[in-house]
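Limitations
The structure tokens in this dataset are predictions for the assembled complex, not deposited experimental models. Users should treat interface geometry with appropriate caution, especially where small molecules or nucleic acid strands are included. An illustrative entry is reproduced here so readers can see what is and is not provided.
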Amino acid sequence: MEFIIITLVKTGLVAFILLTTLAYLQWVERKVIAHVQARVGPYRVGPHGLLQPLADVVKLMTKEDLIPDHVNKVFYVLAPFLAVFLALLSISVIPFGPAVEIFGIKTNLGLADINIGILLILAVSSLGVYGIALAGWASNNKYSLMGGLRSAAQMVSYELPMALAIAAPLILSNSLNLREIVDTQAGNWYGIPNWNIFTGGQIFGFFLFMIAAFAETNRIPFDLPEAENELVAGFHVEYSSMKFAGFFMAEYANMITVCSVATVLFLGGWHSPIPSQAGSGVFAALVHFAAAGMLFFHAMHAARPFDKITFPVFGVVISGIGAIFLAGAFVWPALGAAINGLFWYGAKTFILLFVFIWIRATLPRFRYDQLMRFAWLFMFPAALLNMLITAFFVALKG
Amino acid sequence: MPNVPVPLNYYLTLSAILFMIGAAGFIIRRNIITVFMSIELMLNAVNLTFVTFSYQFRQVDGHIYSFFVMVVAAAEAAVGLAIILTVFKNRSTLTIDDVSSMKN
Amino acid sequence: MDLILFIVFAMFAVASALGLILQTHPINSALSLIGVMGSLAVLYLLLGAEFIAAAQLVVYAGAIMVLFLFVIMLLNAGEERNPWKAPVVAYIGGPVVIFLIGAFVYLINFTLPPMRSVSFGDFTGGGPREIGMAIFTKYLLPFEVTSVLILIAIVGAMVLARKEID
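Predicted assembly:
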């Protein structure tokens, strides 16, 4: 009974945080791209557009929900739900932090801890193509059909190098359980963190995985299924309102999932690069204090009178969070273990998400034949070679 | 909630029903793709039997057999769908009765 | 709990299988087949076959059925015009299928020796470790032969699907 209550609480928390992150990732993406292009981005709703996601949700919910006459109604309605469902499903096996004990309750930070965790993620991500392909087909429109066909071929092609790139860290860790994979990356080797990307020699595998991840999530430079200058908008031409929003939620949720998987497999999950727990707590606190300091500094010469109030408020909140990290480092080690793990996991995932956005602002789109040639003539042999070399060294060592 | 175990016979019965449905589909349908999918359904039913007997004998061998069935099914799907594409290209039809030109 | 899960997913599997052979549009049939595969994956989990359940989703639902869907969409296959063959089939086929199912059910339930009952978590020999040990020791030769088979299938598919056929 206690297990069910704890699981329900954890699921509710994860769902709340995940959905909030989804909404604010949109804001982060718009802001980052705007600043790359020397604009300011969302600015009007709330301080620096911070309430823009809420406004977008209200807008999308109140728009007219069109179902065109010529579509296949069942699959047209089913497709976005399928996309969102499959995208949110795989977060359930990601471990966010170590096993912790708070208020006498001992639990793992993460929802499910299963032996075939990484296989489940592969399975769900290979099912993810149905949402897009069905949407493209059910819309009964030649542009969306082309988008659906492209996404089916692209996602099946990049599934292979992705699975092979994943296989190398699995060989190193000798497990398919994500929590065990993270546990084998604990500690350090002469000051270098014992992560698969460093001491495992998986730097090449990490880049292969990230490239395949871009293709799997249909992001620029591989967003051929929705290439707007050839296909109008690809598979979601005919969608409006919340169904349209469903595809965007699915895309962002997939981004969060692949970044989490990359963190877990290659970047050591929740393990800190700073060996001592107090040290990594102090580092986390310093990051928060620096952010708060920047906010106070900008509040002094704010452009708008509104900012003179909101900036210090946010600064105080963020320095409060930093103080919690300090408390975790020196006063309450049990709490420190939990929040340090969450901090490092979140930081690594967020850096990878930032790379996704950064590349969207930087690179143009590939041509479709280039995309397929790249998958089969470079990615696939390279991933195979990476796996073979890794297996060879593991065999030599053991 | 009491945990009622399921007799293994139920799994075998389900497998038999699925297999017969697949066989019926294989015989009565005309679309070449649907016929092909009926074959996949029969293979799936057989896999269920393998895994069920693996449970009965507490051995992993049944799992390995069903794994091999999956691999062979994948190879078969690749070749079969290529054949279907070629048939469609040459005859522009997917009805199996229309491609029986070897008859007579 | 086991019985409830089994009944729900078995019913879903049978309903989807019937949907596969009764619906006239190939896309509907393909999605019904995916429904069968998904529910079979859950049943594999109940039988303790973790790895096979995941492989079922990755290989069948994630790769083979995507290929089917891709081909159906590519050929733009529409509804079948006369989905059923001769009327004889429609009249005799149904009773024959029901008779055969009845025969199987009789054989399974009355002639087999008594069997175990499945309760979830009782048998855990189907994890990736056990499967890997079996594949790479006892079944090494068949495994290598299947890899050759896959290679042949790839080459065959490439040859068949080429643009010009001489």
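Some entries come with short summary sentences. For this one: The mean pLDDT of chain A is 84.
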